[in-house]
Amino acid sequence: MRTNFLFPMVSTYKKKAGAVPLLAVCIIGFLCTATYGQRSKPASGNQGILSWKAGAASAIITPEENMWMSGYAIRDKPSDGKLHDLWVKALALEDGKGSKAVFISTDLIGLSRDLADVIFERIQTAHNLRRSQVILSSSHTHSGPVVNSNLRLIYPEFDMEQRQKIASYRTFLIQTVVRCAGQAFQRMEPARLASGTGISRFAVNRRNNTPEEVLNSGDLKGPSDHTVPVLSVRSLRGELKTILFGYACHCTTLSNNKWNGDYAGYTQIELEKKYSGCVAMFYACCAGDQNPEPRGLIVQAEQYGLELAAAVSSVIKGPMRELAPEFASEYRELELEFAEPPTDEALKTVARDAPEWQQRWARHYLRERSEGKVPQKSYPHYPVQSWKMGRQVLIALGGEVVVDYSIRIKNEWGSDLFVAAYSNDVMAYIPSERVLAEGGYEGETSMNAYGQPSVWAGGIENKIIDEVGRQLKMLGRIRKTP
Ligand SMILES: [Zn+2]
Q: I want to staple 399 with a disulfide (CB 3.0 to 4.6 A). Which of 120, 155, 430, 444 is the partner?
């Protein structure tokens, strides 16, 4: 096993919702309240409407000033201009019975919980939504701004000027995301939703293939998930209004100092050029151990962007499955335990011998210990969320989830499932049991980058997969494998 990325920062449905017996609904409602998983309930007064309503909006979130960029520990200076803009985009939905939801995509590295919670609270209050009805995703571009505490220990200590810029960008971001979601709801009109899956093969498992092997051999080692989940929104007249799509690959083609959305930015630009008036929204899937290879050049980011746009277009032009106007959602936060923290001796070794960004982590925890602080034993808020739109289920997981998760979920529950990662809270990498045992960046040292006290404890994979299974059952799915 090796970690070879450029820089070290880095079925069948049993029943339709309407056919669930009243008793079952009551039991489900009780369980959801008890566990704070949530099932959205139809609003009253809209029973006559039997189609989706949908609206989309977008806003530029490119910082106006040059400031520190997110993602790579190797960068040693702030941004210097842009290649193209960064965007927040929102897709608001309302089903035939008045249940609402909003999916938000951002061209950002990921949002930490403290920042995301402010956004959730404002959007939920403004639109009377439960937590399960809002998804806040990110593209994980490594060419966007530093946002709040996400990945805080890979950067050097910021001076006052940079701290003020980050704080003011945070305020701007919150206001812009909330306003964008509001505009999407305002623009809702009757719509048709459809889904389909395409394929694009530029993602490479970065743990199992070196850049040289990628260039010299067609025999790439997996695992990877090359599927391209696509949701389309059309007006009742058939005009394409919104495309929501994903891909399981890090947005790490580029590492220069110009703002850009990496390959996913180019894909969105291409799709919005091709389908005039359409909002194209990207979310990162289980890309924790996946990189575009080869990489480093703007022309490569453009190439991957166009490849992904072609894959999305082929789904849009082909047969897609129409989705009935029925929405349901689930949400729960899990407590994930950390393994025993390293000893003082181990921390001192890292503080002395490791790369600078790891030294910062070790010094931080040595300082805390000297002050008598006890490291956290667990992360209590790992978010697992799922939406059902007609027959299409979309799962949204927090953190930098490695590809083993989407492969396992689809093997167990159906290949038609969409699995987003980097959603709601990006607090760390989420290794599978295999990757955790192997170690390396995604299984071990990335926890330093995220400022976590230790690696995850064993059992993390089954804990998350079990919760995904619980939610899928609640949404009426039947497991494929026993
Ligand atoms: Zn990453």
A: 430
